[in-house]
Amino acid sequence: MEPVTEYGPSVPSCDDLHASKYRLPNESFDECMARISLHMSDNEEHFNELKSILLNMRFMPAGRIQSAMGSPRDVTAYNCFVSGTIEDSMHSIMERATQAAETMRRGGGIGYDFSNIRPSGDRIVSLDSSASGPVSFMHIYDAICRTIVSAGHRRGAMMGVLRVDHPDIEEFIRAKRNSTDLTNFNISIGVTDKFMNAVVNKKDFELEFEGKVYKYIDASALWDEIMRANWDWAEPGVLFIDRINEENPLYYCETIEATNPCGEQPLPAFGACLLGSFNLVKYVNIQRFGSNIKYRFDFHQFEQDIPVVVNAMDNVIDRTNYPLPEQKREAHMKRRMGLGITGLGNALTLMEMKYGEPNTLKFIRKLMRTLTHEAYHASSDRAVMHGSFPLFNADKYIEGKFIARFPDALKEKIKRQGMRNSHLISIAPTGTISFCADNISSGLEPVFLNELNRTVNTEFGPVNVLLKDYVYENFKMMGETTEDLSTDSHLDTQIACQPYVDSAISKTINVGNNVSFTEFKDIYTKAWKGKLKGVTTFRLAGKRYGILNKVESSEKEGTACYFDPDTGQKECA
Asked: Torsions phi, psi of 255, nearest 5?
């Protein structure tokens, strides 16, 4: 890219949103980045390096960081948390609800695992009554979130998880089959390898609680019901919970049962996610060959920026507020962060690469390998000066399945120097910060459309904004859009990234109208066989209205539509 002369978003609606969400009153973009840099840096040299990166939008801290660091607001720099364990007692259920309210009041989203709550209809001997089950209590949490949001300015975000072997799993699958129930929740199923093997081998599967088998169910039939819910409503998402725990660098000292609301951070009880993303578009530089212009990725600049960002993000852990003392203790014991990427779709368009093709996947693997290895090098170097995270165990850490794939030299360095941070890599959806960066493509996603209507939540309520894609607007280049791509292109891109991600990936596989239900189910099976930690789909012909929509769409918001792949007919209520 040509040298930047003016900093910040150039599109008025993008700049307005950034100002309304992240800046202090009358604060310019430059002043905002300076404020953030000052409160994230080690010294003057680090401050100047970080400020340059932020001003040029090569790295974009998550919105909570931008809003909180150096701000007089009593908010946290952490985007999201996972609740403490919800035990099967009214005291625990309500205590966690109270803690959730405090967390959301300070600006944090929250995820829950409801699997420890006994199934509906189960006998409560002490009260001579019957249990109402996990889904009933989810409505209490949903109401709390709705109330907190009504008193503030940030849309609430929650994730509800239930294990696939819980006796109430069928009720959970159906919990969001309309547009009015549990609207503040994303929901996901903790799918085990045992269940997937039962599906593949067409076996029965036990639904159990605390060692008691409640019934046997046809695994394939249950899987079909999960798939049908996703086909129509895009939920519940699927978390491959065994793989999450097997690949966890802290396999030796924690068990993960839930994720943050978007799924990119599997977290233990009271865990928190500290997020930020490298804007890949800003690393694509012009190279002139005579009269020809080519765009190439600047790996040298990328490698230089990574340690600057790792050191800055590590400082946030010590310098932010925490809604709960349990969250602070958990964060300080492990010091995890989640660095990711955004703008991939736009960067590929500039470099004339096709989304999902073999040469593109090769580039993505190199990109992610660079990010991960350089981040781990930087964290190990920082441990020399500031010490390792308290739960670091050198022998166990480097023996974990994730770290075992590292080059021998890096593993030896980690064993010798330690690690400042337990986790470093996470790919978030980055919808808002990508929009604020002049509407670049978000996260791992391809360009949605070259022109679209986006619903933007402002202090005055939701507003529909007509937008052009960043590359289409600035370079007059039309790359591939979601509609042009196969589901395999989406899936292969996510699979290419996963070996280099110690947390998880939030990505939506957009499904076109030409995909049959059988092909749709294959996406999830391929995801499991491809060793993904989770998968989410969105079918444009489904019954849920998306935040991004075609300019020419004539369907009304909230319209329920069904596309029959066998007849080719689309019906809308």
From this structure: -120, 135
C-beta of residue 284 within 8 angstroms of C-beta of residue 350: yes
Q: Is residue 521 part of a domain?
A: no
pLDDT at 108 over 90: no
Q: Are 515 and 487 in contact (CB under 8 A)?
A: yes
H or E element, residue 303: helix 299-319
Cα–Cα distance measured from residue 49 to residue 52, given in angstroms and rounded to the nearest whole number:
5
421 & 298 share domain: yes
> In whole angstroms, what separates CA 573 from the centre of its chain?
32
pLDDT digits (tens, 9 = 90+) for 217-274: 999 999 999 999 999 999 999 999 999 999 999 999 999 999 999 999 999 999 998 9
- 117-150 pLDDT, tens per residue? 999 988 876 766 788 999 999 999 999 998 886 4
3-state class (DSSP) for residue 547: coil
CATH number at residue 425: 3.20.70.20
* Identity of the residue numbered 359: N
Examine the domain organization and report whether 57 and 170 are in the same domain.
Answer: no
Could you read off the pLDDT of 536-559 as tens digits, one per residue? 999 877 776 554 445 444 334 433
Residues 477-494: tens digit of each pLDDT = 988 888 889 999 999 999
Report the 10 Å Cβ neighbour count for 112: 26
Token code pair at residue 307: 């340690």
Choose the final residue of a domain: 205, 230, 246. Answer: 246
Give Rg (Cα) of the chain.
23
Which helix (H) or strand (E) segment holds residue 453: the answer is strand 451-458
Query: Which tokens belong to 110?
Result: 């929250």
The Cα–Cα gap between 425 and 405 comes to 15
Asked whether residue 196 falls in the same domain as residue 343, the answer is no
Residue carrying structure tokens 């290419």: 496
Which domain, by its residues, includes 27?
1-79+274-506
Tokens of 326: 């349990």
Structurally, the chain folds into a number of domains equal to 2
